[in-house]
Design brief:
This protein has 233 residues and is an alpha+beta fold. It is 18% helix and 29% strand. The relative contact order is 0.12. The protein binds a DNA duplex (20 and 20 nucleotides) through α3.
Length: 233
DNA sequence: AGTAACTACATCAAGAGTAC
DNA sequence: GTACTCTTGATGTAGTTACT
């Protein structure tokens, strides 16, 4: 059985939905929604309960209200901490990717969603490829400088989409059993071999015969670069 | 048992819009 | 302007559910 969190302090799912809807409506129509519109959207059938939530949100400081004024409500700056989540995708960081260490294993069917701040990155959906729904994305933190050939440095976060195959030109995370190494490369299928092309043009590609083992673990959707250190030479 | 968190339903007043 | 209608917000009451 599922049940709501019943702490009288603090914000619940419903509060967040109300805030998200007010924000969305405001952006779309240039004015706040009515209480009934909120109720309809948030699946609350009673205007009094919507009002009840709005009162709580006002007390918590997410909302300002003009009494007795139709649609008299404004979101406060405090809302940004919460409501942006609607346009943001929380991607869990499953672990490190480093040469010589196996990639963290994905568990099929397990939701990757997490509440932990420390182990996830928030990505604006607008930055993702348009068709990407982002359902199964995960992130890996690059350890060491072994990915320099993919123009990725220590501490960068790579956002991955699970995949076992890739099309030419896609950047993939591959596990090379023969070298016992994980690496990020552009993937090309050639006549009887795979070409793993480093992003850095001064480096030579790796060729893998099609008979040799090669495990594609995922496609790189996005790289988040940390700028807190100078670029390695 | 007591209470918070509802749902459902009802009622009222203020404004806005529309018709005459 | 006056009358009527509709929307909206505010308020109240009764009953339900689930947690403490």
């Amino acid at each position: 059985m599922m049940m709501m969190v019943r702490k009288s302090k603090g914000i619940t799912d419903k509060h967040i939905k109300v805030l998200e809807f007010v924000n969305e409506y405001q952006n779309r129509f240039g004015r706040p929604p009515s209480i009934r519109e909120i109720g309809e959207k948030v699946k609350i059938s009673s205007t009094s309960v919507v009002n009840y939530y709005l009162e709580q949100l006002e007390k918590m400081g997410y909302l300002e209200r003009d009494n007795r004024v139709s649609r008299g409500m404004r979101l406060t700056g405090k809302v940004n901490q919460i409501v942006q989540a609607g346009n943001m995708l929380r991607v869990p960081i499953l672990g490190p990717i480093a040469a010589g260490e196996p990639l963290p294993e994905l568990q099929p069917g397990v939701s990757y969603m997490t509440d932990s701040e420390a182990e996830a990155v928030d990505i604006a959906r607008s930055l993702l490829p348009p068709k990407e729904k982002g359902d199964n994305l995960y992130a890996l933190e690059v350890k060491g400088n072994s990915m320099i050939d993919a123009m990725i440095n220590d501490g960068d976060i790579v956002v991955m989409k699970p995949a076992t195959e890739a099309r030419n030109g896609e950047m993939v995370a591959v596990w090379l059993p023969s070298d016992n190494e994980a690496t990020l490369k552009y993937f090309f299928k050639e006549k009887d071999r795979y070409r793993l092309q480093p992003a850095n043009p001064t480096l030579k590609p790796i060729y893998i015969k099609k008979t040799e083992p090669l495990e594609i673990k995922g496609k790189v959707v996005m790289v988040i670069r940390k700028m807190d250190k100078p670029l390695a030479a």
